[in-house]
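Narrative of accomplishments. A recurring question from our advisory board has been how the design workflow behaves on a single, concrete structure rather than in aggregate. To address it, we present the structure tokens for one chain from the evaluation set, followed by the sequence designed for it. No filtering or post-editing was applied between the two.
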């Protein structure tokens, strides 16, 4: 594993972790700059994308960028956030990178899911959502705030699909 840490004054902190088989400069260059510049700017919620059945509820996901481009970047919002918070990041990545932002059950355009809402359940549902969309890794997982904990837990459970993590904390 290779780690980078970028901290700029008055800016969010971004930790990037990637497998040694992935060129770290690519991950850092593609993701760090857009994330640092855009996370603080919130846009009004809008929910382009699709809603996919996961268990007994529908979950919202929006994927843009070239089909077949890899690794696919999965964007995980922080607590109280939604996929719409990643829309500008997705637009900047779209010419070269396939990215998907989704809404956890009960947030954004996703329906409420089964109780209790545990982190383990959130990770299970993300995996089920990716399977339902027939999306295959490798993935770079990007988690903001509590989303960072979720992508770390996802990596522990489904690590063979993950080649990099970006942990963002404003």
């Amino acid at each position: 594993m290779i780690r980078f840490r970028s901290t700029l004054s008055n800016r969010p902190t971004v930790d990037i972790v990637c497998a040694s088989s992935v060129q770290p400069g690519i991950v850092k260059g593609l993701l760090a700059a857009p994330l640092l510049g855009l996370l603080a700017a919130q846009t009004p919620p809008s929910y382009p994308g699709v809603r996919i059945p996961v268990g007994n509820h529908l979950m919202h996901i929006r994927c843009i960028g070239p089909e077949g481009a890899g690794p696919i970047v999965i964007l995980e919002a922080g607590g109280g956030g939604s996929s719409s918070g990643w829309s500008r990041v997705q637009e900047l990545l779209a010419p070269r990178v396939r990215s998907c932002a989704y809404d956890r059950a009960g947030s954004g355009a996703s329906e409420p899911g089964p109780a209790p809402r545990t982190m383990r359940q959130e990770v299970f549902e993300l995996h089920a959502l990716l399977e339902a969309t027939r999306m295959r890794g490798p993935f770079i997982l990007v988690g903001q705030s509590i989303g960072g904990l979720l992508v770390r837990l996802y990596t522990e459970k489904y690590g063979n699909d993950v080649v990099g993590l970006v942990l963002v904390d404003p």
